[in-house]
Amino acid sequence: MILDTSKYLGPCSCGRDHELRTKLVVCEHGALKKFDSYMDDAGLSGFRTVLYDTNTYNLPSVTRVRADQEIVLEAQGLHSEKGLIEDCMTRFVRKPDYVVAVGGGTLMDFARYSAWKLGIPFVSVPTIVSADGFTADICSIIIDGQKKSIPMQAADAVICDIDVVAGAPRFLTIAGLQDIMAKCVSIADWKIAHLVSGEYFCERVCGMAQEALDLMTKCAYDLKAGKEPDIETMAYTQMLSGLTMQILSNSRAASGAEHLVAHLVEMKPRGFENAHGLHGECVGVGTLLVAQAYHKLAERESIEVKPFTPIDEEWVRWEFGELADGILKENENDVLATFPPENIKLHWQEIRGIIAEIPSYEELDSLYAAIGAKHTLEELGIDPVVKDSFLDISSAIRNRLTLARMTRLIAD
Ligand SMILES: [Zn+2]
Ligand SMILES: [Zn+2]
Question: 342 CA to middle of ligand 2, Å?
Fold first, then answer.
């Protein structure tokens, strides 16, 4: 399928005029064979520098595209680090008119950073689509030893050849599926935050996230029924998800309370010391836990609220140890202080209605178990003891308004 991004552009009922750098997204069998004509469609011409790594260069399923210069980076130890990318740029025989990157997220960051630095377009050719970064504009890069996620530049075109990405190992496809299915929570969190605090919300962008969620849910149930994975549709949902980030310049539509498990696994606070797992796997377990907690909250027919109080420093120091200073800083301008807590009570029935749209824990758990997706804390090496304080721990690490965070304003 070809995703015409122009339908998402222009003036919107949310009050904004939406823009996207990415004009063309192709998810098709044999797309690489028609690469040149897609470049014409995207209006890209001139000196073409194509980046591979030693793995993607030698993939039998990859049809190598015409190149004015090919650069093949050693895959072993390749990571997105400013120095390494600038070294790669010194190999350019001249300033390209555009760069094409054939590979996964790391190679995209090489192209993204180089293109941004040189003020030229780049084209993304994913060899794996278990993540939604291909259509986004975020560069995950190590600068001076620190990992940063910096909005930089989106690809002008994304050419995803299904014959190539279909070769990815099943566990990566499943992790990617869990990352998209997490939208059942992230969409709910966004809607609830909008209701309660008046936070910006866009029906059009939310509709894109919902479309990705609905399509991926169908793919998941097809897998459960024993069908072959529909890689084309799965790839399409990842592209759609990345576009929501590009339009919003943030991950609001794609990442809510459930995503924080992935951050905790990276940060390793108390109870998470031995935690491990792919991004999508962590997010998948997060989705289950949050779905369970939210449905439990929604059992209450009415609630009482309590006044805002800043996060308890002693508790933060106990839970987060040496990470505590960073957590306290994150909570300095607490989003919970920006609206009257009564708003949660006032909108409680609407909030319950939004939660009712989230599949139940049991439904998600049996689906994930059936398709071989990670679905327990133990599988991620996380101490199950954190389950009771999970919402508090996870919502403390990011100052984004989620229902999980709002529980600090809801009386027991
Ligand atoms: Zn994600
Ligand atoms: Zn809008």
Answer: 28
